[in-house]
Design goal:
Helices cover about 80% and strands about 0% of the residues. It has seven helices and no strands.
């Protein structure tokens, strides 16, 4: 069974919407890299039961993403922040290179500080 590594990301976003069993099985399979047999042994279910639970969980996660699109939105938000940070740094660099209004540089520095202080939101 080939692993769709995007499922691990979807599990982070939508995991609480799954049943506890599905969440546990997907976590063991994707995040802990256990085999179907190992999952079955750990949870007291058959190898086939582990596989079925993984498939149902994957389908649910994909359904939630298709319905809500939170992972896609988070990726766009992250791309926006990276671009905003780059642009603010370019503004600051240009302000230093020419005579500038101090208020522009102050605003650029504040934007950079805000973006950098919120980078942890994108990591979780």
């Amino acid at each position: 069974m080939a692993k769709d590594l995007n499922i691990s990301n979807l599990l982070d976003v939508y995991g609480k919407a799954l049943t506890e069993k599905q969440r546990d099985v997907l976590d063991l399979y994707y995040n802990n890299d256990l085999s179907l047999s190992e999952i079955g042994e750990n949870l007291g279910i058959s190898r086939q039961g582990a596989r079925d639970s993984i498939k149902r969980g994957e389908e649910s996660l994909k359904f939630y993403e298709e319905l809500l699109g939170l992972q896609k939105k988070m990726k766009k938000y992250e791309e926006f922040l990276v671009e905003a940070d780059l642009q603010a740094k370019l503004i600051l660099k240009q302000c230093k290179a020419v005579a500038y209004s101090n208020s522009i540089a102050v605003k650029a520095k504040a934007l950079i500080k805000f973006i950098e202080s919120n980078e942890d939101l994108l990591q979780d």
